[in-house]
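Researcher: Next sequence.
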Amino acid sequence: MPENAGGRLNAGSASAPRQQEDTLVKMVDVRAERYGDRTVMERKRDGIWQAVSWRDLSRSYREVARGLLTLGLEKGDRMAILSENRPEWAFADLGCFAMEGVVVPLYWTLTPAQVEYILRDCSARVVFVSNAQYLDTVLKVKPGLPELKYVIYFDPVPADRLEDGVLSMEELMQMGRDAPPEAWETMGRCIAEACGKDLATIIYTSGTTGEPKGVMISHDNFLSNLRSVLEVIDVKDTDICLSFLPLSHVFERIAYYLWLYIGGTIAYAESIDNLMDNMAEVRPTILVSVPRIYEKAYGRILDRVRDGSLLARLIFVWSLGVGRKVSTCIQGGSVPQGWLAVRQRIADRLVFSKLRERFGGRIRLMISGGAPLSKVIAEFFHAAGLTILEGYGLTETSPVITANRLDRLRFGSVGITIPGVEVRIAEDGEILTRGPHVMMGYYNLPQETEEAIDGEGWFYTGDIGFVDEDGFLHITDRKKAIIVTAGGKNVAPAAIENALSADKFISQAFAYGDGRKYISALIVPDWERVESYAKEHKIQYSTLKDLCQDKVIVDLIQKRVDAALVDMSSFEQVKRFKLLDREFSQEAGEVTPTLKLKRKEITQRFWQDLDSLYD
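Model: Next structure:
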């Protein structure tokens, strides 16, 4: 492969790691000593936000570590966590590290069969679960898992679930408090002797195609990545974030370690449904999210504007126009001056300050990852004074490869390489990366590891993209997702899907057409807006399926599709589509936890619908 095939990015070296902080536990220990009784985590219980101090965190994960050692767990044992985000997740995670265990996070949306597959594949000895529901999931598959010895639950569970090997987190921590001297000595030795090259975690990819693979990530992988990120994104120990993405995903995991690294505060959201209420209560300064949350917020804002008075709509449109001019000015490296600066202050007072208040009023930075972010939405929020920095990475890269920065920002791109990371574009357009962020390999899959990482250390991401003249990386699509039409045209479905889902009447879109004469799509309308439209136009219907067949609604979506794709080539146009009455969901196995479409599953499940579009 040519050294500069299609483009290459080289970054400078990241800061040299501090020797005393070469593992995640040592890093946290230094912060706990520094911050003491200062709050590191908050959670809401019985309507009240409760604080966890750095001292509490340090004491708790040490008790977990000694408790595990007392149970007979050893260095290298795999320990899974099946739980929503909460302080106990961190106690279990860091407690495993403190006795040199390996953490295996599990998505709480997994089916029992998927949980069983992962626990068997990694030979897990312990599973931490948060409640009775997840305990039942594990107990259902436990008979087929001879290696699994203990299940430890966080919240109280019914007495009939308490069989041998099932104990509470409090019981485990009490064992840690009462542990014999040798357990204390062993834990101290484990913490001291552990080093950066040690395996920290096995994260199973959510898998848009095929079975999930266990990605092995070391302490060095995580620490080098978060240090590099902190060289390009300004985060302070006074910042507070609202944690709501699953900690089982590497994106939220690196954010959690980053907050521990800088000494900030993590507030755990009650749920996605309570997200906006929690945001108003916590008033975070930095928001880490997948694009779907920003898309929904964008849609709600437009709905409020649409439902407002004519004067309010005119003020909003004027303010947005001013905001876009300010955004263009800032992107060009300038500061608004003169009459533009005056109009900016007026627009901010009339519209944008109220918009920011919906996010708590203190947001100074938004970060997006896990899936492509619509350029339209990024530009909208920037015009409103809320900057979204989009980055790019994978589980296998711990995860960050590139990121936009406040001083180097290009919407529609995923930014430039972070320090210490290299990116190269192969002849076929695939993105390759090399550096300390690249995983140790796939667990128990040496052949797949060899195929993914070549002899020179380049990891093959499976994504297609290009580097522009200013060094910004642009993602086109997944290599395996590229559609080749019957006419031999290569079509990136993600570009079509992102354009369609940016429309206010469209919630989700799935583009299809491999080996076919033209591109078709499955479209999930934004049913709240479509039903409102139906009522305005006095359309009679009983169910959403009725609306899927209604000519007025189909014509409406057709016009929206045509408008969304107006700038695309003729072979990228969606010639036919079918409306669906429900969203693609994690529960149905159609999207990943970061809401990326699982193309294989959707194609198989909706095969008849897709095939009918070519009759």
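Model: Confidence is low (pLDDT under 50) at residues 1-8, 11-17. The domain at 23-42+51-194 is CATH 3.40.50.12780 (Rossmann fold).
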